[in-house]
## 1
Amino acid sequence: MKVESYFLACCFLLLTGCGGDAEPVGNSDIEYVSPVDYEIVLAGNFGEPRPWHFHGGIDIKTGNQEGKKIYSVAEGYVSHLTVNKHGFGNAIYVAHPDGLTSVYCHLKRFADVYEQQLQRTGWRDTLEVRFAPGQFPVKAGELIAISGNTGNSTGPHLHLELHDTRTWVMRDPLSRLAHLIADSVAPQAHSFMAVPMDGEGVFNGGLAKQTFGFGQPDTKRQHTTWTVSREFTAWGRVGFALWADDYSEATYNHYGIRSTQLLVDGREVFRSDVDSIPVSCQPEVNVWGDYLHWRRHRVWYMKSYCEHGMRLPILHTGFDRGIVCFDQERPYRLTYILSDYNGNQSEYNFTVHGRRDSRVTPRRRLTLLDTYQMYDQCLWPLHTRKTI
């Protein structure tokens, strides 16, 4: 008992201490403005799952044209320029006094004062020029570049990223720009996946993973609540995953989900909050999402539980890692709550009846092994060193 108490104490200290740099250090009162001189419409948002990486910023539409003026989103200084690095094509980096750096990618060219700092020899150049702090100061709304379609871009647009300057952790640009973007549409879930743990769970009589549609008609509402009429059965330990998209009223595009909660009988067992992603955690998107399913069907089911060894700081669970233990013969009420950055929210409810099955034996919900696993996950730092 003393050993377990010691582990619990260590976990508490690590949990309360490992996120100490969640907010950048600096002046947090600076004003952020639009990087373009027209209404912002997004083609993609931050954190969308992609094979082997998360989408590291927001994609702002430029009317499928090159040549739009690009402005600094806040005061600061231009820290460096890159050409044909990281798939960004032409990219300009602006460091801000709040401890963040904004990055503007796929540009056609830079503003003249910065273009003159380069020695281009041809379109295949790979260049990087760094400047001293304050060498090229900029104001919020100052012209810094012209939009284009360079680098790994499938069409003209502005890819805008926001990073913690010190650690280079990827931040959600909407944390500073959401007030500039119209969005009154809630995220929408299409279906869920039940994943019985190997040898430890069964769902609807099956030992393999299964998918079930919510049966909700396509809607674009600010808030929605949906209850699935079909009821399900389960016994033992079962994980769940969700296929869902976010939307806006301004375009046909769909986006990733900012926040997902899974509740069981009103108690939170899993929560994701897609912000502050260390660059070194990029490949873990293939573990959080069902990568094999994506390979076959081009649909991402994002797990509402953590696999062993998962250390993404955007995922939050208890000692059970988000896996639901059906060990009583009674109805369990499951609820998914999806939210976007503007507070638009949708709720999905379904019932799973605990039905005893001789093929599996539910194990205790809390063991010393669980405690050790939680302790091990706490050792993963929230931030990683700067890599760019």
## 2
Amino acid sequence: MRPRTIIAHRGEFVDALHLLRKGHVLVRVSEAAGGCVLDGSPVYHSYPTLARYDLIREFDNPHGFANARYYRLTERGREFADRACKAWRRRPLWQRLAMRLTG
């Protein structure tokens, strides 16, 4: 049995952090409808980790859809995202590509 990892897909996780740092909003809809969307792209693996470690927080969006939930980075999430994105950019390109392919 494969051990459960904290971050299911590192490439997606760093991409989500990067977009959230830029002010984009994570939108969570029902699991039946596809889960989460960030900047028009589906987020398959990162939401549970972002929520579990209090990196994102739900906010009220009166102009949004009634059944959707909207999330932004918390202060803790912003600090973490800054460190994680810097560490990601310091890795050689081949390592970043390998992590994207393997999760």
## 3
Amino acid sequence: MSKIVTPQQGQASTEQAWAENLTLEQIEEYERQGLDMSPYRKMREDKIAAQQKLIDDSINAMDLGKLDKYKKARSAEDAFVTDVAKFNGISDKNKAKLELAPLVYGRVVQAYNALYDPKENTDHAGIVFVFALDDAHCYDDAWLAKTAERISEMKEGGTVPPDCKKFIETLRDDSSYFCVKLGESLSEGADAWCAVYQLEEQSQLPLGYIPHCRIIPFLLSTLPTHNNVEIELIPPAYYTK
């Protein structure tokens, strides 16, 4: 009877990875050859179920509405300001700059792959955020998602308007560090920006990974300018259940 031949027979870790990544079409093809693929079907089903649970958990855990009361001016003596300062290593002397710091939603455009996996614990990894400063767009989930998707499409080879070419060229350089105001072709009238943030520890993310909505709220302790912005993450307890 035929046997399943893996790419590296005898190497357990490689065989495991091969088995976990079998597509349904591959499984069905082996079955047509008369092979018992039930263990591999079960492995695939378990993987899909685990991925769906991860999505459901992150959707159910997020509660961005809890931030509504902190979106306007706040006092340096507020627990929220104190907690944000501590979370970002800001001294008591400097935490006053958080009183009027805009609170915006950062939508992840791209990030180090491990940051999407709660089983990982990656330090000093980059995240590219898109965000807006104007009231009409800074909390608009749909606009943020659409803009992030358009940026990704341009980066992957889609049509790039003239006012976005320099930005997309910079984005394609994975080693670049930037803060860029988006051109009108992407912003659609928003005061929109895209910037790289260097995450210190993965545990700073909600649930320890980038949530399914890809929204991570933060304060801007300095307003963005060309190649300069100071992003202060908000402790996840303030926007998760």
## 4
Amino acid sequence: MPSLNVSFSDEEMEGVRAAAAAEGKSLKQYLHDLGVREMHRKRFVAGAAAWADRLRSEFDEAFPEEVPPSRRGDGIAAA
């Protein structure tokens, strides 16, 4: 299984150790979970943005007063 060596300053290591202890995890498990959690967060954000893009025209049609002026197409320029 791949592994990774990561360098921290003394101050950074102190903070990471405290964060791991606060979650009741070893340093290894805490740093592993942190990386995986960030990967999942990025996937979620990308999926949510794609979902919003797919539904944007339907939302704009249902709520025209909520369409930003720059996208209205009524000749009004954004400030």
